[in-house]
TrEMBL record:
Natural source organism: Kribbella qitaiheensis
Transmembrane regions listed in the UniProt entry: 55-82, 118-138, 159-179, 185-208, 258-278
Polar residues: compositionally biased ranges: 1-11
Name of the molecule in the record: Molybdopterin-dependent oxidoreductase
Segments forming domain Oxidoreductase molybdopterin-binding: 316-451
Matching PANTHER family: BLL0505 PROTEIN, PROTEIN-METHIONINE-SULFOXIDE REDUCTASE
Keywords: Membrane, Transmembrane, Transmembrane helix
């Protein structure tokens, strides 16, 4: 971006009109505050880039207006995929913010891979655009006096929620992707409520600013700006919002250069992250891989988000005397791994996708969950509670919906890629269900309780 150079004094302390008492505050109070500008960023001469103005700000704003709803909706859908009606959405009790309950689909099998991939991937790609948008409006954020009327005071408070909300969501989201359980608070709870704070501020901001955005975009031709060289770059006309510098410095970059820089940054982030969701040959370019970098060996060579050691799995509990308990029917049924392996086996090629955005497609082999439900004496289950050998942790159990149990590709997997599961991938047995969030594909299964109601 063009440099903000405060070294040369401004010919004006401000190019904003001095209001009268009709603006809501007495004119005398306004003049008294205006004469007492704090130093540094509150001075108009601190912001001298000739690129700033309503048009450039509105270009960045238009991109955010188009893409942010996709990030928001995909995030809310991913929350719904956890089936909060079973008490396993995080947070659970959200009051009037509760989303309508519905059965999360099992088709297509890559649905959760898509929603969470979009949420994380687009969210990361928006970071350069968000930062550019904040750069373009920074003089307004430091406007002095901060408010001239009660209405303007409310507007500025909404900006605090808007800017603070999106920065909080970006910061917590990026840290959660890269680090395992870094926070001293629940990431899921904070991210959920932070999202709603931002959504409210975003909708309010759009309602007030959409006419200004449309007017500003019409003030200049995008095609013309993309053809304008650095030598021909001129500041926008003075505006009532305080974005155009009153004493602009010579440009060091054209507007097309600024758009290329920001757009190129977003594309680069996309290239460095998309492989974690798309997989295949693109994965080698995913240098910004999330946590879950641990890999297994041979046929089990794919991402492990939580190892058996991290889950405190006692190797003795997975030894030859391990058995699976099927509950919920007339009487409990106990099956050894040998007995499970002797049952009719099925294979399914399914992706496993996690909240951090990574996913991986493997071929799984095992016993259909609906066959186990039949064996347990609950042929038409309404739900099933799967319990892990893991003693603690947020995801040592999961409740499955009826459609997830009865889907022909829903398995209690014993093998992956024609080899036994490794301990880190859930040996002796794990659940794998189409379109289910990765953490609910429970590993180290010890029991399944099928429920008729």
């Amino acid at each position: 971006m063009a440099t903000d150079n405060p070294s040369q004094p401004s010919r004006e302390t401000s190019h904003r009109p001095v209001p009268s008492s009709q603006d809501g505050f007495p004119a005398g109070l306004w003049r008294w505050l205006a004469r007492r500008n704090p130093p540094g960023p509150f001075q108009a001469r601190a912001w001298r880039s000739p690129l700033r103005g309503p048009w450039l700000t509105s270009v960045f704003g238009l991109v955010l207006l188009i893409v942010l709803p996709v990030v928001i909706v995909s995030g809310l859908l991913s929350y719904a995929a956890y089936a909060p009606r079973f008490g396993q959405g995080n947070p659970v009790d959200v009051g009037w913010l509760r989303l309508p309950y519905f059965d999360w689909p099992t088709r297509p099998s890559w649905l959760y891979r898509l929603t969470q991939g979009l949420h994380v991937g687009l969210g990361l790609m928006l970071i350069p655009i968000v930062l550019a948008k904040l750069w373009s409006v920074v003089p307004k954020l430091f406007a002095w006096p901060p408010a001239r009327s009660a209405a303007q005071l409310l507007e500025r408070l909404s900006l605090v929620l808007l800017v603070g909300g999106i920065l909080f969501e970006i910061a917590t989201g990026v840290l959660n992707i890269q680090y395992d359980y870094l926070f001293g608070f629940s990431f899921y709870t904070a991210h959920f409520y932070g999202a709603w704070v931002f959504i409210g501020a975003f909708v309010t901001h759009v309602a007030f600013k959409l006419p200004h955005l449309i007017r500003a975009l019409r003030s200049r031709s995008l095609r013309s700006e993309l053809r304008t060289r650095l030598a021909d770059t001129r500041p926008e006309r003075p505006d009532p919002y305080g974005l155009v510098a009153p004493d602009p410095a010579p440009p060091t970059m054209s507007r097309r250069g600024a758009l290329a820089l920001v757009g190129g940054g977003a594309v680069l982030v996309g290239i460095l992250t998309a492989g974690q969701t798309l997989g295949g040959v693109t994965r080698r370019f995913a240098l910004l891989l999330p946590r879950g970098r641990d890999l297994g060996d041979g046929p089990n060579d794919f991402q492990i988000n939580r190892t058996a050691t991290a889950a405190n799995i006692n190797p003795a509990s997975t030894a030859a005397d391990w058995s699976l308990r099927l509950l919920g029917g007339p009487r409990p049924v106990t099956l050894t791994r040998t007995q499970l392996a002797a049952m009719t086996q099925h294979t399914a090629t399914l992706p496993i996708a996690c909240v951090e955005g990574w996913s991986s497609t493997q071929t799984w082999g095992g016993v259909r969950l609906r066959d186990l439900a039949q064996l347990a004496g609950v042929p038409h289950p309404a739900s099933a509670k799967v319990m892990s050998l893991e003693k603690s942790g947020s995801f040592n159990q999961a409740t499955l919906q009826s459609n997830q149990i009865l889907h022909p590709d829903s398995l209690l997997a014993l093998q992956v890629n024609q080899a036994d599961l490794s301990l880190d991938h859930g040996y002796p047995a794990r659940v794998i269900v189409p379109a289910l969030p990765g953490v609910h594909n429970t590993k180290w299964v010890r029991s399944i309780e099928f429920r008729a109601t």
